[in-house]
């Protein structure tokens, strides 16, 4: 649909109908909704691959879901989805295709960008990564002095860090435990310092991950890592070849840095940074878990891609989860979304989703450049479950904010858990189930009184309940399940961006800060005058210089 013929989201009859429906629902409580419809757990649950997705504890009825699907239909979510899978340039502000789904397409698939099938290139890079990963894992790839590589340090930031760093943590039980993996992202020298201080340069491989190979944090850290290596080895530039590889779309810059482009693993401009860890950006992960496990993960992604591409709206999990987010933002004034994994291995999962969701949908103009008049992406936050219970869950249970939450848990503990620790898994999961029940159904003043609580404490011990949650339960946390989970969230974010009519694939909002940082640096180091530095910042810079003894 072209811009001229597109009706503003909040002027659509489907939007108005949702608003009216919201008024009619009023404060309907999940207790009533379950009493009225005891079949909610069967009706509002989906099985997608290994993921059992239960959204019965959401503040919706059949009518809400039907109206949300109408909204999806009128906003052409599926037309845009098909355009994405086809390789159309749906990232209009950067004139790029959005084809992370091609990264996990089977070898015989045909997906064209500008008339060229990209799938053979994807698999050629995966094969090259596999051969390299095997060499490092087996010890065949040695460093400059002939020593075996024992440490792998990924240097990257944003999408070139969060994905592999998260997935390495998630899949730790599948990793080569005799290798050490570190992830450096922050331009604060402390990050690199702590990552390398106990490593032997002769045994260390640096993976420089940067789509553009111009990101200042990454290039600065990579340069410092090269200095550390060459100083430690007392070697010349020729040592770089055995200790540095690059993951990038920019061969010219990689060569300029001094990395042999034979040791570069390529990806393409149609892979967004935050959608890239299943591309060459996943090399550190592939070395950690091996090429076969990596491919299992890709198959998991692909399974959910196919589900999203083909499942009907009423059984399409990313569509439903995406629409629920639209519902809460627009009609419940929710500003945030919590993702609460009940697995220690998912400790970096929510941080990863922050970039995926907030860099994608943190926009305030629509695809036609008009200001939006509706909520777009939420603040995504959360940490592993039981820790959160003793920190911020208080606010979710009894605070004043609406915070829809996803609970993610697994029936089986990981395979290599010490046998003595296995019984703890049921305790972990008892908390998982208890929390969603408490959030949904709460505790009424009468129930509190019945426990003999004095009247003056009753309001304090009452739980209003009615806090919406989705429960995602899987048998086991495997590489495939991780791929399924990530693809589920990728497509959920896509759906929301499509409904909100925003470009979920650009990130212009990060540019201004980058440009200003470049201008401010000489003011810090040389005391140079910076054009356009505001009075507050000028005073702070002066204070900083004084504290630095300059
Ligand atoms: O934060 C902006 C951003 O462009 C992200 O989208 C990206 O993942 C990150 O910087 C790193 O970029 P690059 O991989 O080009 O170094």
Automatic annotation (TrEMBL):
It catalyses: alpha-D-glucose 6-phosphate = beta-D-fructose 6-phosphate. The keyword Glycoprotein does not apply. Keywords: Cytoplasm, Gluconeogenesis, Glycolysis, Isomerase. CDD domains: SIS_PGI_1, SIS_PGI_2. It is found in: Cytoplasm. The active site is at residues 359, 390, 514. Its EC number is 5.3.1.9. PROSITE patterns: P_GLUCOSE_ISOMERASE_2, P_GLUCOSE_ISOMERASE_3. It comes from the Bacteria. GO terms for cellular component: cytosol. GO terms for molecular function: carbohydrate derivative binding; glucose-6-phosphate isomerase activity; monosaccharide binding. Pathway: Carbohydrate degradation; glycolysis; D-glyceraldehyde 3-phosphate and glycerone phosphate from D-glucose: step 2/4; Carbohydrate biosynthesis; gluconeogenesis. GO terms for biological process: gluconeogenesis; glucose 6-phosphate metabolic process; glycolytic process. Pfam families: PGI. The keyword Membrane does not apply. Belongs to the GPI family. PANTHER family: GLUCOSE-6-PHOSPHATE ISOMERASE. This is Glucose-6-phosphate isomerase. It comes from Streptomyces boluensis.
């Amino acid at each position: 649909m072209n811009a001229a013929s597109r009706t503003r989201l909040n002027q659509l009859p489907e939007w108005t109908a949702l608003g009216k429906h919201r008024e009619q629902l009023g404060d309907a409580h999940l207790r009533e909704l379950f009493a009225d419809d005891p079949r909610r757990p069967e009706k509002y649950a989906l099985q997608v691959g290994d993921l059992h997705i239960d959204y019965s504890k959401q503040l919706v009825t059949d009518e809400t879901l039907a109206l949300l699907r109408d909204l999806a239909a009128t906003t052409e979510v599926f037309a845009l989805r098909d355009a994405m899978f086809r390789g159309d340039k749906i990232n209009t502000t950067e004139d790029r295709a959005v084809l992370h789904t091609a990264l996990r397409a089977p070898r015989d698939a045909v997906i064209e960008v500008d008339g060229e099938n990209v799938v053979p290139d994807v698999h050629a890079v995966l094969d090259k990564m596999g051969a390299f990963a095997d060499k490092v894992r087996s010890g065949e790839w040695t460093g400059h002095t002939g020593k075996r590589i024992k440490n792998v340090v990924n240097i990257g930031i944003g999408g070139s860090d969060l994905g592999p760093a998260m997935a390495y943590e998630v899949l730790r039980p599948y990793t080569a435990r005799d290798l050490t993996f570190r992830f450096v992202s922050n331009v604060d020298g402390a990050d690199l310092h702590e990552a390398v201080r106990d490593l032997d340069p002769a045994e260390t491989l640096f993976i420089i991950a940067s789509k553009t190979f111009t990101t200042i944090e990454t290039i600065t850290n990579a340069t410092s890592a090269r200095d550390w290596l060459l100083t430690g080895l007392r070697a010349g530039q020729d040592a770089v070849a055995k200790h540095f590889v690059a993951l990038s779309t920019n061969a010219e810059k990689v060569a300029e840095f001094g990395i042999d482009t034979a040791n570069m693993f390529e990806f393409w401009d149609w892979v967004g940074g935050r959608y890239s860890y299943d591309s060459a950006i996943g090399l550190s992960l592939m070395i950690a878990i091996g090429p076969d496990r990596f491919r299992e993960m890709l198959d998991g992604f692909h399974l959910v891609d196919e589900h999203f591409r083909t499942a009907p709206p009423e059984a399409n999990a990313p569509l439903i989860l995406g629409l629920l987010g639209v519902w809460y933002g627009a009609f419940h004034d929710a500003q945030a979304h919590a993702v609460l994994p009940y697995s220690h291995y998912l400790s970096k999962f929510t941080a990863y989703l922050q970039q995926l969701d907030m860099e994608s949908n943190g926009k305030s103009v629509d695809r036609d450049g008009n200001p939006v008049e509706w909520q777009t992406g939420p603040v995504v936050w959360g940490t592993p479950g039981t820790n959160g219970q003793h920190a911020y869950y208080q606010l979710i249970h009894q605070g004043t904010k609406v915070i829809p939450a996803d609970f993610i848990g697994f029936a089986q503990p990981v395979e290599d858990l010490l046998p003595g620790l296995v019984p703890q898994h049921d305790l972990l999961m008892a908390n998982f189930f208890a929390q969603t029940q408490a959030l949904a159904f709460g505790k009424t003043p009468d129930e509190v009184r019945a426990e003999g609580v004095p009247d003056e404490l009753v309001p304090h011990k009452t739980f209003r309940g009615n806090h919406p949650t989705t429960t995602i339960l899987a048998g086991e946390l495997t590489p495939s399940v991780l791929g399924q989970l990530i693809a589920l969230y990728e497509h959920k974010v896509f759906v929301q961006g499509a409904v909100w009519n925003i470009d979920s694939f650009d990130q212009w909002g990060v540019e201004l800060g980058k440009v200003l940082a470049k201008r401010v640096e000489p003011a810090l180091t040389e005391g140079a005058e910076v054009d356009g530095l505001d009075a507050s910042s000028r005073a702070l810079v002066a204070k900083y210089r004084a504290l630095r003894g300059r």
